[in-house]
Specification:
By secondary structure, this protein is an alpha/beta fold. It contains five helices and five strands, in the order E-E-E-H-E-H-E-H-H-H. The chain has helices at about 50-60, 75-90, 105-120, 130-145, 155-165, and strands at about 10-20, 25-35, 40-45, 70, 95-100.
Length: about 170
């Protein structure tokens, strides 16, 4: 899917939300750019510095061609420590700004609500593996619907053709 997304803005919004997996609450870390295009997601058991560092490292690897110039997070101290650790390890540029303005994170906070509305009918997940795969599918379909793919036009037929192209399935009759 990433091949079809094109350029991303270098201003990232990072946040986490809760998802029920196996009857327990897990943390879903998410990052989007300033236009709301998905950068990466990750499920974790904890919301600590180690998990934040792992997530940001994963997102930086995924977006190695578009490194962030600024990362906006909430007031959680784990993000500050994770960003400093990644800068010390030279995985993140020392020029990258860390902002904690809550109003700049409204994009991702609103996006959490949209994702939770899709997740709610599933009534939770049994394992982290199935939760991650299902949520990733929800995110991909959301990106297609929002027009975040270069080759997909916002029409149902074009969306179906694009999904068929992604999964190498049979063509749709016109």
């Amino acid at each position: 899917m990433r091949w079809y997304q094109g350029y991303r803005a270098t201003s990232w919004r990072v946040d986490e939300t809760y998802v029920k997996v196996g009857g327990r609450w897990k943390y879903l870390f998410r990052a989007v750019d300033k236009h709301g295009r998905l950068i990466d997601i990750m499920l974790a058991d904890r919301r600590n510095t180690r998990a934040a560092c792992r997530f940001l490292g994963k997102a930086l690897t995924t977006m190695r061609h578009w490194p962030p110039s600024s990362i906006t997070t909430d007031q959680l101290g784990s993000y500050r420590k994770a960003i400093l650790r990644l800068q010390q390890e030279d995985k993140l540029s020392a020029d990258t700004k860390h902002r904690t303005c809550k109003y700049l994170n409204n994009i991702i906070e609103a996006d959490h609500g949209a994702l939770k509305r899709v997740i709610r009918p599933t009534r939770g997940f049994q394992t982290i593996k199935t939760a991650a795969a299902t949520i990733k599918g929800f995110e991909v379909m959301s990106m297609i619907r929002r027009g975040h793919c270069l080759t997909c036009k916002p029409q149902v037929k074009d969306e179906i053709r694009f999904v068929n192209k992604l999964f190498d399935t049979f063509p749709v009759a016109a």
